[in-house]
Amino acid sequence: EMQLLESGGGKVQPGGSLTLSCAASGFDFKSTRMTWVRQPNGKGLEWVSSINPGGHPTLYADSVQGRFIISRDDAENTVSLQMFNLKIDDTAVYYCATDLYGSRRGQGTRVIVSS
Question: Does residue 90 sit in helix, strand or coil?
Answer without folding.
Answer: helix
